[in-house]
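Interim report to the steering committee. The following record documents the input for Oligopeptide transport ATP-binding protein AppF (329 residues).
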Amino acid sequence: RKPLLIVEGLKKYYPQRGSVIGKNRPVIHAVDGVDLEIYEGETLGIVGESGCGKSTIGRQIVALERPTSGRIIYQGQVISDMASSNLRKIRTGLQMVFQDTTSSLNPRKQVYDILAAPMLYHGIVTRDRLDEEINKLLELVGLSKNMKYRYPHEFSGGQRQRIGIAKALSVKPRLIVCDEPVSALDVSVQAQILNLLKQLQEELKLTYVFIAHGLGAVRYVSNRIAIMYLGKIVEIAETKELFDNPVHPYTKALFDASPLPDPSLRKRERIVLKGEIPSAIQPPKGCRFHTRCPYAIESCKVNDPDLLAIRFGSNHKAACPVMQAGGER
Ligand code: SF4
Ligand code: MG
């Protein structure tokens, strides 16, 4: 299988917001060396606490931002250093659905204009077919075409997210980064939006990157899941494998903190996360998780572990030599 998109050695550093410009300006290491392959038609979940860099990866993937170093390769083309004029064509393939529809949908525009703008900008339809195309989009996301002359505030949160999805679909993308698309919604509405995303994926042969801080929604929609901690991926595996056989202590801690029934809990001690996630300005040396890890040994404070296959040839990878040495499971 050839990946649709490759993330290679991605780093994204930026100055802390509101800090004074100058030599000693604090730098946030938002993403600090991430490699990923995203395959056509799959959903790759990315999970981690807020501030772990997952949204930053999402923005680099859809070329909303440029990496500090590393590359994003889409359909064999390096897009991370492409001139803006060439990116315009690429952007129709790579779209994003945001958590916060109050800022992603212009409150002063009717749904009609919200959907028309990207299609006209990218030359997806001619003006005479615009109306028909907008009706189709609304129908696709489960809204009525009569709703197109309303404003975003006239809709419920769930309906607004449907409009956000329609806007992403309007330019006929192949890959959509869904950044916490249901986190702001009532629990009763979340399943409807997740099912809509799944149904659209099948119908339109879409590839998703699904970003979330909790495991519930990610487990439901993802084929594979990457767990992030302080700018790095600490574990990645197919969804079932990850839940059946978590290796990294941080992954286990996340499972233990979530209300999901976890059969592996019966076999081992619960891991309770102590303390806050450390600052991404000066991440801990060695394994970044050592300040909170109950299994940390001296060498963890020095050696920064690589993400390695847990068995030869396995596509389940983890970044913890202590667990991989065959000890605690
Ligand atoms: Fe814990 Fe050490 Fe493994 Fe890091 S490398 S997760 S500190 S045991
Ligand atoms: Mg975020």
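Residues 249-324 form one domain. The committee is asked to note this result when reviewing the revised timeline.
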